[in-house]
Amino acid sequence: MFAMVLLQAGETLQAADLAVPEPAEEEILLKVEACGICRTDLHILDGELRNPKLPLVMGHQIVGTVVQPGAKVTRFQLGQRVGVPWLGKTCQVCSYCSGGQENLCEQARFTGYHIDGGFAEYAVADQQFAFPLAREYPAVQAAPLLCAGLIGYRSLRLSEDPARELKYLGLYGFGSAAHILIQVARFQGREVYAFTRSGDQRGQEFARRLGATWAGGSDQLPPQRLDAAIIFAPVGGLVPRALQAVRPGGTVVCGGIYMSDIPSFSYSYLWEERILRSVANLTRRDGEEFLELATKIPVRTEVTTYPLVQANEALQALREGRHEGSIVLEV
């Protein structure tokens, strides 16, 4: 099968002809239709996420069709459309797994990082960590839901305060995750305030077109004190800015797997019971809830596609912020 392979961190992906993988008893073999590109892929490529499996087929927003179920597969049938997310496997017995926090399992394995992913014509996945996908979504439209959508949904869940309505929500970094999450937030009746790089008029207009009440530079304070803010951009300097933007008792969620160093800031930014927290990965419950909600809304992803052979060009386009919405490889 054709695949784009990472041989060493810091290098570009290399085209390779690999054997089609054989699914284990609890695995499904998928013919990949599309695979989204995520900023996490850049963190792996650049060596910011250490100790990946090498050589590695990256890609963790996989949409494919089952072409061979393992001998003990019961959840999926031949020909069924399936989505594969970042969380690829857990131990399922530790205190985290049994306590509803499987995303924190110390033995977790991740798709496109520890397990070969979707930058290839075929991929295998554990049946317990894959999701059935409705045929209503074209493959390229569905792919970004499997990471950008899921991490945005979990970030929103963790920004909510049961004691007070979350009406005013800030999103720092208006890329793939934010352009999906704003659709969820608007469906739920929330006002969204979008923050982009200073002077990014195109990104701000994109946010307003999707329903943002206000859009401006990340160096600005919004016209309304926020109940919560989610930071998708991997920029530690946004943390004190977001803390300044939220009300007393408000929450700032760091939604990325990697972030540059957070600079020191005055305790007054955190005082008055403001909460600063991170999001790690996702749980299968997040996936089930979000995919059902996305179909109900329905969420519409805006995508730019590249053929698989141009994976390096697509990654560079993501790095440079050339496209609005999401970038997806067609396989």
Description:
The chain has helices spanning 39-45, 95-98, 139-142, 148-159, 176-187, 201-209, 238-245, 284-296, 311-320, and strands at 2-5, 14-17, 27-37, 62-69, 81-84, 87-89, 109-110, 122-126, 131-132, 168-172, 191-196, 214-217, 226-231, 246-254, 275-278, 303-307, 326-330. A hairpin with an 8-residue loop joins strand 1 (2-5) and strand 2 (14-17). The strands form 4 sheets. Strands 3, 4, 5, 8, 9, 16 and 17 form a 7-stranded mixed beta sheet that branches. Strands 12-11-10-13-14-15 form a 6-stranded parallel beta sheet, with helices on both faces. Helix 4 (148-159) crosses helix 5 and helix 4 crosses helix 8 (284-296). It has 2 domains: 2-145 and 299-330, Medium-chain alcohol dehydrogenases, catalytic domain (Quinone Oxidoreductase, Chain A, domain 1, Alpha-Beta Complex), CATH 3.90.180; 150-278, Rossmann fold, CATH 3.40.50. The chain is globular and about 55 Å long. It is an alpha/beta fold. The chain contains 9 helices and 17 strands. The model has no long low-confidence stretch (mean pLDDT 96).
